[in-house]
Write a structure and sequence with these properties.
heterodimer; A: alpha/beta; two-stranded antiparallel ribbon; 18 helices; 8 strands; 59% helix; 9% strand; B: alpha+beta; SH3 type barrels; six-stranded antiparallel sheet; 6 strands; globular
């Protein structure tokens, strides 16, 4: 069993789909994989179960996703963990890699989006990085299925124990290391081999309540009822306090140590050259978000999308309704021919079929135009710029700029808009966005006047 | 001379190093998760049309911060 971990938006689900061939939908908002998705694959005759765990930046359980991810790494007992990274911002991704390495050393790092990094002029010395981390690092471009065989090879080697697992360890400042050393032996005796005692000790010191809950569930008893642990924990905490490290300081120190280690791992590995393309991107960015051109460009772009959707949808709408209502007449003829009673055929054909045909012909074309266009904007990376431009005004209404995006989605479909609200971090702002989303008329509800002209009920002879 | 100022006062194109994080709770942890700790270099890249939020380059990633959050980050710059 292999766990697939990674930051949000690094193409983790793409890797998963390419490996398993299972078409799990990939979305572009954080926390899309809320529970673990599973798939199977066979590589060189070996069967694997792949588990796609939620995207997260850290395993310190600040959010539901991080909790699920951490719980699976700790208690799901995966045989190996593949951490998928974004080659374009590798250093940031190292945070998660290092935290995963604290839990288990059966880790394979998959550096995805190599193609994108190349385009951005980023060169990576992954061999050097692999040496520093002490685990295999495999480059990949999952979208074009590059590097995935190498990845599975590395996973196989890791499972067979051919790559000697002597991975890097984040070292903390002296007082913390001392406190860990005090706690570690007794934790090890109780929990044994299945969980890294050093990591667990650190989490106990850090007072990670959500981990304790999961831990107690997995163990079947309360770790904090063990006298020895409680005593040692008390001692270790006192030791920290006497050296002037409070609970808050401890958390800060842990995070800083990990970030600094990540920095060290990446120095010399990541070489960034400014390319022409990047300079051009910066120029475009400036136009899209500047004081004078930001709003006009935004209004123009969104306006064009709406115009295309509303006007463009008219023609296929008309065709569809003509076709479907032509079919209705044929259906009616058929039903009459085989002698279906009048009440039944009017219920089926004029009731069920006509309503369905009506809904499909009115709603399908605008959706089929709106969503691809919206996706295009998303892929171009324009949508975050919209949120960036509008945040101040939304903030005045105690909402978040990202609500602009969920509202735009709402024009296509309110359900999609509300689901999209999970990109908003603050629970209050998210709730506001969800509740108000239904005030955005979706394309089934805003009926442009010319739609009436295609009304098939008008001028139609009722044939009974 | 080294000047301590809040990140919110950094102008477009200027760079500075984080001296201290004043924000607490979940915002502090989010900032730490993106690698914003003491000593991290931050570059002010672009202001939004309304002047707030502002985009910063932090460890190679472009991050937008509202002024209420960036004013809780103290930075040191050689000014």
């Amino acid at each position: 069993m292999i766990a697939l971990a990674g930051n949000p938006n690094v193409g983790k689900s793409t890797v998963f789909n390419e490996l398993t061939g299972m078409n799990q939908h990939t979305g572009n908002w954080p926390g899309k994989t809320v529970t673990n998705a599973q798939g199977t694959c066979t590589y060189r005759g070996r069967p694997f179960i792949l588990v796609d765990i939620p995207g997260c930046y850290s395993l310190m359980a600040h959010s539901a996703e991080e909790e699920v991810a951490r719980d699976f790494l700790c208690f799901g007992h995966p045989d190996a963990v593949v951490v998928v990274c974004d080659a374009t911002c590798l250093e940031r991704n190292m945070n998660l890699v290092l935290q995963a390495l604290e839990i288990t050393n059966r880790v394979v790092v998959c550096v995805n989006l190599m193609d994108e990094a190349e385009r951005k002029g980023i060169r990576l010395d992954l061999e050097r990085m692999s040496e520093r981390l002490g685990v295999p690092v495999v480059p990949a471009a999952a979208r074009s299925h590059k590097g995935l065989d190498d990845l599975m090879d590395a996973v196989c080697r890791q499972l067979d124990g051919k790559d000697a697992p002597s991975s890097i360890q984040v070292s903390y400042i002296r007082p913390i290391e001392d406190a860990i050393a005090m706690l570690q032996p007794s934790v090890a005796t109780i929990y044994g081999e299945s969980l890294n005692a050093r990591w667990l000790s650190l989490r106990l010191l850090d007072h990670d309540d959500s981990l304790l809950r999961s831990l107690n569930d997995a163990l079947g008893f309360d770790l904090l009822e063990k006298e020895e642990i409680v005593r040692k924990l008390q001692e270790a905490k006192q030791c920290l306090h006497s050296r002037g490290i409070s609970q808050e300081d401890l958390r800060d120190q842990i995070v800083s140590s990990i970030v600094r280690t990540a920095e060290k791992v990446c120095t010399g590995v990541v070489v960034h050259e400014k390319t022409k393309r990047e300079l051009r991107d910066q120029k475009i960015d400036r136009i899209l978000t500047s004081k004078w051109t930001g709003f006009p460009v935004m209004l123009l772009l969104l306006g064009v999308i709406f115009w295309l959707t509303i006007t463009g949808a008219n023609y296929p709408s008309e065709l569809l309704s003509e076709g479907l209502f032509w079919l209705q007449d044929r259906l009616m003829d058929g039903f009459i021919a085989i002698g279906v009673p009048a009440w039944l055929r009017s219920m089926l054909v004029e009731g069920v079929y006509r309503v369905l045909a009506w809904v499909v012909s009115v709603m399908l074309p605008p959706m089929a135009i709106f969503f691809p266009l919206f996706t295009l904007l998303e892929d171009l990376g324009y949508l975050p710029r919209v949120a960036f431009n509008l945040d101040k005004y939304f903030k005045k209404a105690h909402a978040c700029g990202k609500q602009a995006l969920t509202m735009c989605m709402g024009f296509g479909c309110n359900a999609a808009g509300i689901v999209g609200c999970r990109i908003i971090d603050s629970p209050r702002e998210r709730l506001i966005a969800m509740i108000t989303n239904s005030f955005v008329p979706c394309n089934g509800r805003f009926a442009p006047p010319h739609k009436g002209e295609t009304n098939p009920f008008r001028g139609r002879t009722q044939r009974i | 001379m080294i000047q301590i100022d809040s990140l919110a006062n950094l102008q477009v194109g200027e760079r500075a190093r984080v001296a201290s994080l004043l924000s607490r709770g979940s915002m502090r942890r989010r900032l730490q998760d993106i690698g914003l700790i003491e000593g991290t270099e931050v570059e002010c890249v672009q202001k939004s049309p309304a002047g707030d939020p502002v985009a910063y380059r932090i460890r190679g990633a472009l991050i937008a911060l509202r002024s209420e959050d960036s004013s809780n980050i103290l930075v040191a710059s050689n000014g």
